[in-house]
Amino acid sequence: MSIEKKNGTGTGDGGSGTPEIQVRGLHKSFGDNEVLRGIDLEVGSGEVVCVIGPSGSGKSTLLRCVNLLEEPTKGQVFVDGIEITDPDVDIDAVRRRIGMVFQQFNLFPHLTVTDNLTLPQRRVLGRDKEAAAEVAAENLRRVGLSEKATAYPASLSGGQQQRVAIARALAMGPEVMLFDEPTSALDPELVGDVLAVMRMLADEGMTMMVVTHEMSFAREVADRVVFMDGGVIVEEGTPAQVIGNPSHDRTRHFLSRLLDPAMAEVEEDRTP
Ligand SMILES: Nc1ncnc2c1ncn2[C@@H]1O[C@H](COP(=O)(O)OP(=O)(O)OP(=O)(O)O)[C@@H](O)[C@H]1O
Ligand SMILES: [Mg+2]
């Protein structure tokens, strides 16, 4: 691995001085619903930050604001020192630097795996067919799916489709990868292969923000874990701190529900 794993206290910057992602005073409302209520966060170059928290706490909205799929109501987002929330910024140029992987893989069903990877390269980056195919092949190899190059998505397992979606994002040459619950739609036996690909990317030094409920992944791979609730960051720190020894009741409560969903149901029944 690359990268000196940071000490986890926060602003690992990979030595370059500028954090890869910087979020300052970020607010996002949908109508009257204030979903993000002042988020400050830095992700250093090569750092892996896992974002955890209950449903509706604003995790997806945070990720979507980081690549401007949502427009923040207030606050700033910087990528590699460039303010992407500046109205004059070229949004397409920004998005090229940030790969995103969703719970749903969103592959084109009528295109082969290779064509799913080459289409965005050709459309967005203007690569010619041969160059795009070469990059596609290289990234299919990275995710362990070279033999599926000519297959159609419907013939792949969910885990394989998600790895194709990751390869598609990587083929664009991003500096940062954002993952929004990439394994939540998968059967349990398919989760491991996807997490292994993400672990490889982390080891290669990719800067990553990962929304996940996979606590063992967060423990092993994250440099830092951020716990969100109600649109704010309640606590952040090393996995050992946040998952192993949380300092806030809300974090403890969330983690205990994750570990024992049956208890959570009992608790919810009790809630008036
Ligand atoms: N496009 C939208 N329009 C209106 N409300 C939205 C929109 N996107 C999200 N919200 C609301 O914002 C809140 C936070 O949603 P968000 O998807 O960010 O939560 P989350 O932490 O990712 O939850 P989950 O774990 O269920 O994915 C929710 O109340 C949701 O209904
Ligand atoms: Mg979400």
TrEMBL record:
<dbReference type="GO" id="GO:0016887">
    <property type="term" value="F:ATP hydrolysis activity"/>
</dbReference>
<dbReference type="InterPro" id="IPR003439">
    <property type="entry name" value="ABC_transporter-like_ATP-bd"/>
</dbReference>
<dbReference type="Pfam" id="PF00005">
    <property type="entry name" value="ABC_tran"/>
</dbReference>
<keyword id="KW-1003">Cell membrane</keyword>
<keyword id="KW-0547">Nucleotide-binding</keyword>
<dbReference type="GO" id="GO:0005524">
    <property type="term" value="F:ATP binding"/>
</dbReference>
<comment type="similarity">
    <text>Belongs to the ABC transporter superfamily.</text>
</comment>
<keyword id="KW-0472">Membrane</keyword>
<feature type="domain" description="ABC transporter">
    <location>
        <begin position="21"/>
        <end position="255"/>
    </location>
</feature>
<dbReference type="InterPro" id="IPR027417">
    <property type="entry name" value="P-loop_NTPase"/>
</dbReference>
<protein>
    <recommendedName>
        <fullName>ABC-type polar-amino-acid transporter</fullName>
        <ecNumber>7.4.2.1</ecNumber>
    </recommendedName>
</protein>
<feature type="region of interest" description="Disordered">
    <location>
        <begin position="1"/>
        <end position="22"/>
    </location>
</feature>
<dbReference type="InterPro" id="IPR017871">
    <property type="entry name" value="ABC_transporter-like_CS"/>
</dbReference>
<keyword id="KW-0029">Amino-acid transport</keyword>
<dbReference type="InterPro" id="IPR050086">
    <property type="entry name" value="MetN_ABC_transporter-like"/>
</dbReference>
<dbReference type="GO" id="GO:0015426">
    <property type="term" value="F:ATPase-coupled polar amino acid-transporter activity"/>
</dbReference>
<dbReference type="GO" id="GO:0005886">
    <property type="term" value="C:plasma membrane"/>
</dbReference>
<dbReference type="InterPro" id="IPR030679">
    <property type="entry name" value="ABC_ATPase_HisP-typ"/>
</dbReference>
<keyword id="KW-0067">ATP-binding</keyword>
<dbReference type="InterPro" id="IPR003593">
    <property type="entry name" value="AAA+_ATPase"/>
</dbReference>
<keyword id="KW-0813">Transport</keyword>
